[in-house]
Amino acid sequence: MSPSLVPGSADAAAPRAGSEFAADMLKALDTRPRSISPKYFYDSAGSQLFDAICELPEYYPTRTEIGILTQCAGEVAQLAGPRAEIVEFGAGSLLKIRLLLDAMKEPARYMPVDISGDHLAGSAAALRRDYPGLDVHPVVGDYTQRVLLPVPRAGGGRRIGFFPGSTIGNFTPREAVHFLEVAGQVLRGGALLLGADLVKDPAVLHAAYNDSAGVTAAFNLNLLARANRELGADFALDQWAHYAFYEPRQQRIEMHLVSRRAQQVTVCGQRFDFAEGEALHTENSYKFTIEGLRALAMEAGFRPGPVWCDARQLFSVHWLYAPES
Ligand code: AVJ
């Protein structure tokens, strides 16, 4: 039995987050327009801020997806069949995976793939305690790159991918197809359960990324705070503005950090100039139509199955059949 391809890096090969962050930040500051991957939001402070975002009244995706998963879990369990092996891309919320595990018949194995080993260890311990029959097998790796899953498939059941939260929206459409192609290889013969945020009234989208409590602003600014902590940078946080808006032609929210005045910053001992109003692009969060998402999946070789939505059509959860071979 050969191990299968997963997007991510194998345990031993995982790069040090610090040095990768340093290299990517220096590269971002040297490029025009300046932009950096949103994966650097998630140090421990950023992960806590993200959890706070999920509780905000304006941020509908998390609670809406949980509602949908609660409704469709029985049907999902039927589709998955007995002794399924679940591969989660990103060790997300324990609540979401529990909804699936509780509905499934004798789930055999749970393999969360995440860049944060600490995050993985915490959730693995809790799940092992609560699901004694389940083989919990975390994989430290970056699922946005491809690598090998270290273990052969669990015997008998189907391999089911789980990619909730509309994290797929952080990829450009091209990157999303590439991710899905790699995921399709990992999951071949099985399926992917995918959460995708939907195109909707721009005012609703705008509010979700411009909350009145300022938590999303703090989450965005934490990237600069993290650079100060880890890269010896000297960003003056009060000289930077959180700027998030919906771009309807590309169907995406863009988040930026905008310099409030002309200023110089030092990062890893190097100086960089920012003009007043110059920006660092920190995140894209694409929104989808149901048909558009299904078309992307088909481009990557998946066959679309059932789709579940909330009554207001805010969010969608898709069952996508992976290629057979
Ligand atoms: C985790 C990527 C799905 O795009 O809504 C929340 C991250 N950024 N608020 C999203 C995020 C700002 C979130 N994803």
From TrEMBL:
Keywords: Methyltransferase, Transferase
Enzyme class label: transferase
MF GO annotations: L-histidine N(alpha)-methyltransferase activity
EC number assigned by the record: 2.1.1.44
Taxonomic superkingdom: Bacteria
Name of the molecule in the record: L-histidine N(Alpha)-methyltransferase
Entry-linked NCBIfam families: egtD_ergothio
Pfam families to which the protein is assigned, alphabetical: Methyltransf_33 (PF10017)
Lineage: Bacteria, Pseudomonadati, Pseudomonadota, Betaproteobacteria, Burkholderiales
Secretion signal span: none
InterPro entries noted in UniProt: EgtD (IPR035094), EgtD_Methyltrsf_superfamily (IPR051128), MeTrfase_dom (IPR019257), MeTrfase_EgtD-like (IPR017804), SAM-dependent_MTases_sf (IPR029063)
GO BP field: methylation
Keyword hit for Ion transport: no
UniProt domain Histidine-specific methyltransferase SAM-dependent: residue ranges: 22-320
